[in-house]
Design brief:
The protein is of the alpha+beta class and 142 residues long. Helices cover 42% and strands 18% of the residues. It contains 4 helices and 5 strands; from the N terminus they run βββαβαβαα. The strands form 2 sheets. The protein has a 3-stranded antiparallel β-sheet with strand order 3-4-5, with helices on one face. The chain has a two-stranded antiparallel sheet with strand order 1-2. The model has no long low-confidence stretch (mean pLDDT 78).
């Protein structure tokens, strides 16, 4: 069982690992050994998740989920298959935990009375200042 967050655990049997050759530098090791790991998790058929959790994951991770509802995580940073497998599993846990996290609902606050009063007083001050300028420089005064 892989614990995503408190109360959410996914059985390891639902995870599918595929191995392939990594890209990039690495010499002969890259050409011979399949160290790249692709981790697949079928979100739509995962019994460990509720429907609300599935929709939340689907909306937050839509760029990583295929049309079939399969979440894909790739790791090819390390030189060994085991290290990449651990890295992919860790990344999956982080992605799901972040997607399942609920943000607190923002409560609207009322503008304090002193702030409203101060804003209106400043508007009146600017208005009278501009009116004084108009009277002083108007062409009628000449």
């Amino acid at each position: 069982m892989i614990e995503i967050k408190k109360g959410v655990e996914i059985p390891e049997r639902l995870l599918t690992f595929r191995f392939s050759r990594s890209s990039g530098p690495g010499g002969q090791n890259v050409n011979k050994v399949s160290t790249r790991v692709t981790l697949l998790l079928d979100i739509g058929n995962c019994p460990a998740l509720t429907e609300a959790q599935k929709t939340r994951i689907g909306s937050r991770l839509k760029t990583r989920i295929s049309k079939d509802g399969v979440l894909r995580v790739i790791s090819q940073r390390h030189r060994t298959q085991a290290a990449n497998k651990n890295a992919a599993t860790t990344k999956l846990i982080e992605l799901l935990a972040d997607a399942l996290e609920t943000k607190p609902h923002r409560q609207k606050t009322k503008t304090p009375a002193y702030a409203v009063r101060r804003r209106l007083e400043e508007k009146k001050r600017r208005s009278t200042l501009k009116k004084q300028r108009l009277k002083r420089f108007s062409p009628d005064n000449e």
